[in-house]
From TrEMBL:
<dbReference type="InterPro" id="IPR054491">
    <property type="entry name" value="MGH1-like_GH"/>
</dbReference>
<feature type="domain" description="Mannosylglycerate hydrolase MGH1-like glycoside hydrolase">
    <location>
        <begin position="59"/>
        <end position="241"/>
    </location>
</feature>
<dbReference type="GO" id="GO:0005975">
    <property type="term" value="P:carbohydrate metabolic process"/>
</dbReference>
<protein>
    <submittedName>
        <fullName>Glucoamylase and related glycosyl hydrolases</fullName>
    </submittedName>
</protein>
<dbReference type="InterPro" id="IPR012341">
    <property type="entry name" value="6hp_glycosidase-like_sf"/>
</dbReference>
<dbReference type="Pfam" id="PF22422">
    <property type="entry name" value="MGH1-like_GH"/>
</dbReference>
<keyword id="KW-0378">Hydrolase</keyword>
<dbReference type="GO" id="GO:0016787">
    <property type="term" value="F:hydrolase activity"/>
</dbReference>
<dbReference type="InterPro" id="IPR008928">
    <property type="entry name" value="6-hairpin_glycosidase_sf"/>
</dbReference>
Length: 356
């Protein structure tokens, strides 16, 4: 059977824990725990082709996708000079997804009485984080390689993929500070969102599919990652700027964000330039504004522990933000955020609202 995707497996495990936090029933989640364990087993024994601790991909025949991450175009993974990476390829963001998946399974193990398993999984995640930092970080450039190629060389282009690493939590604070600096440059920030590839790279083309275009979901994930590292200087400011640009693009597209659009600098064109064959509507793009809202609210529900965390950094232009009938398992609450003020109504007495 052919899937052509290397990242769906860890993302499934991440999603399972997320659904539990939002109120999926314990019975439903426990039913899927064997599938989650099978996913982690695949990551260790099949996704990691050579035993180096990283998940790689390589197609088995001359058919199907050459690249099997979210940037799945044939030329989507390249180095700073523009040379194509040779398989098997280990993408930086996929290792981040694996890290988050292991921690997600540890969280579920803890809840369902498997504390020993949870501890071993956390140790495994910590080991992966260290190995990832050693293998993917490029000290002389100040960013992560987009991938390791078949010879374990760092594919050294500056890409939006590092924003996904921030989102997963695999990034150290020291490295996050340098990533914020590079993502904030005009090479990455088009003014309407984050470019997939920095304009100074050899393969950059603002009209390409993955080498300089702007994908709304990609920018939203980077914003979520920056706000995860809100304690890093400049992270919140950059997240706000990227979000404002993306929402301005949404307005220009009549309120419907497309799959992607061209990555020309905003100073050259007053409106985002459409990508000719972009899907519109598209599910990823449609979800992007929702992720922006959640991220700037700092909204983290935890139904098993009966807490709702709201740590807002809402852009001033948004004004007051209200969420009504927010379903958290069998509970529905209303939230209002006005600046730093957080108001929750209909929150059951045995729940806690965490705002700092």
């Amino acid at each position: 059977m052919y899937y052509g995707t290397v990242d769906a497996t860890p993302l499934f495990v991440m999603l399972l824990a997320e659904t539990r936090r939002w109120g999926a029933s314990p019975d439903a989640v426990q039913t899927l725990l064997p599938a989650a364990d099978a996913a982690l087993d695949w990551i260790s024994h099949f996704g990691d082709r050579d035993g180096d601790g990283f998940v790689e991909y390589q197609r088995a025949t001359d058919r199907g996708l050459i690249n099997q991450g979210w940037k799945d175009s044939f030329d989507g993974i390249n180095d700073a000079a523009g040379h194509l990476a040779q398989a098997p390829i280990a993408l930086c963001e996929v290792q981040g997804y694996v890290y988050a998946a292991i921690l997600a399974r540890a969280e579920l193990a803890e809840e369902f009485g498997q504390s020993d398993k949870a501890e071993k999984l956390r140790e495994q995640a910590a080991e992966l984080r260290t190995k990832f930092s050693e293998a993917f970080w490029i000290p002389e450039k100040g960013w992560y390689a987009v991938a390791l190629d078949g010879n374990k060389r760092r594919v050294d282009a500056l890409t939006s993929n590092v924003g996904h690493c921030l989102w997963s939590g695999i990034v150290t604070d020291e490295h996050a500070e340098q990533l914020v600096h590079h993502l904030a440059t005009a090479e990455m920030d088009s003014g309407f969102g984050l470019r997939t590839l920095a304009s100074g790279m050899g393969a950059f083309n603002p009209m390409s599919y993955h080498n300089g275009s702007v994908w709304p979901h990609d920018t939203a994930i980077a914003v979520a990652g920056l706000l995860r590292y809100r304690h890093i200087p400049g992270a919140v400011g950059l997240a706000t700027r990227l979000s404002n640009g993306l929402l301005d693009a949404a307005t220009a597209f009549g309120g419907r964000l497309p799959e992607l659009f061209c990555g020309f600098q905003r100073s050259r064109f007053s409106a985002p330039v459409p990508y000719p064959t972009s899907c519109s509507p598209q599910a990823w793009a449609s979800a992007a504004p929702l992720l922006l809202v959640r991220s700037f609210l700092g909204l983290e529900p935890d139904v098993p522990h009966r807490t709702v965390t709201v740590l807002p950094h809402v852009p001033a232009r948004w004004g007051r933000v209200e969420l009504t009938d927010l379903r958290l398992g069998g509970t529905a609450v209303d939230l209002a955020v006005d600046g730093e003020q957080v108001i929750a109504t209909n929150l059951p007495e045995d729940w806690r609202l965490i705002t700092h």
